[in-house]
Amino acid sequence: MKNSILFVICLLTLASCNQEPDGFTIEGTLRGEVEEGTNVFLKKIGDNNQPVEVDTATIANGIFQFKGISATPELHYIFVDKAQGYTAVILENGTIEFSAQKDSLGFAEVKGTLQNDVFTDYLEKSRTLSQKARSIQEDLQRATKDGSPQASIVALRDEMQELQEEYKGFELDYIKNNPNALISALLLDRAVASRAINSEEIKTMYEALTPEIKNSKPGKRVLDGIESLKVSEEAEKNTSIGAKAPEFSGPNPEGETIALSDVMGKVTLVDFWAAWCRPCRAENPNVVAVYNKYHDKGLNVVGVSLDRTAEAWKKAIADDGLEWNHISNVAYFDDQIAKLYNVDAIPAAFLLDENGIIVAKNLRGPALEEKVAELLN
User: Fold this and answer.
1) Dihedrals φ, ψ of 359, to 5°?
2) pLDDT (tens digit, 9 = 90+) per residue, 38-75?
3) C-beta of residue 349 within 8 angstroms of C-beta of residue 324
4) Is the bond preceding residue 51 a cis peptide, omega within 30 degrees?
5) What are the angstrom distances between the C-alpha of 99 and each of 31, 65, 179?
6) CATH number at residue 43
7) pLDDT band at 237, cuts 50/70/90?
């Protein structure tokens, strides 16, 4: 009978040891001159891309604690009242050990769970490469200031370029070697935003991630970003020099629909701009001058506005004397024509020949007139 009871107890003990933790605990230790009762804040990035407070703890004898439940691993940040900097920590169920000097929160030691151990390893290796970059940058600044030979400056720039490629390779290898790590999804998310690699490469690495990481917030963003990146890559291909300009149409200030094909000239400038865009408004007098000089010879301009309101758009047309065809869906950067032409910053301009072939992009100042004169012979 006793043996049976012992056997049951052993089974229960083993079962409890194999269970996943039902929540997270951050055991925090803060060194330095820290007042009793100092607040420690646990925050995450909210929808407006600003830190949002999730929880607050107080320090007693240099120790604080956070507890909760994390459905999926998620990046959070620890701030200490009246202390500079912060510490990134990945919330996941389990015991997370945090240790830092009050004045060096950016170099805190965070360990105890898989995600934080991998994240700490990534940060340490990343800092090594960053230190190399800072050293090269300092040498480059010194060489430029001291008037060193041009060959030395070029060599330092080449060294920096090589280091940038090394850093890129390091991050891509880290993603491939750690498909179960949140940092891999975060790095992929950044690769989508910066277009560091193409959508097919990102998709391949994304598909290798574990289901848990795919289901995390950055994992979901990566999946959405892949589709957006594909669209962007296709638009970039379709609007490269030598490509046929994509056809589009939209409402003019009078509410009538006009199409690019209806207003083409021997040379056509498709000009993306907005009333709120200062560089656009600064360039408008030059476009007006070129248009007035060459319109009778075959130059047409189509202004595509990314304004938020029709009133601002129409007022800017009148104020700047833009006497050419205008189109606007009043949709800011959600404008479908802007997406069609892969425009994510303005001013942006595409110069077309009489066949609608893109022959130049983003010409400004004298360069615009020179190209228009060349095309009109």
Assistant:
1) -110, -15
2) 999 999 998 888 889 999 999 999 999 999 998 889 99
3) no
4) no
5) 8, 12, 27
6) 2.60.40.10
7) confident
Which strands, in side-by-side order, build the sheet including 39-45?
Answer: 51-58, 39-45, 74-80, 87-91
The residues pairing with 147 across neighbouring beta strands, listed in sequence order, are: none
Helices (H), 19-50: none
- pLDDT for the residue 21: 61
In a domain, 369, yes or no: yes
Distances 322 to 138, 274, 302 between C-alpha atoms, Å: 48, 12, 10
Rounded to whole angstroms, how far apart are CA atoms 111 and 117?
5
pLDDT tens for residues 83-100? 999 999 999 999 999 999
Q: What is the pTM of this model?
A: 0.68
**First CA to last CA across the chain, in angstroms?**
106
Question: Quick one: 302 and 211 in the same domain?
Answer: no
- 366: domain CATH number is 3.40.30.10
Is 168 domain-assigned? yes
Distance of alpha carbon 311 from alpha carbon 343, whole angstroms:
23
Bridge partner list, 11: none
Same domain, 280 and 321: yes
**What is the rounded average pLDDT of the residues 265-287?**
96
The token pair that represents 324 in the structure block: 């050419």
Cβ(339)–Cβ(235) below 8 Å: yes
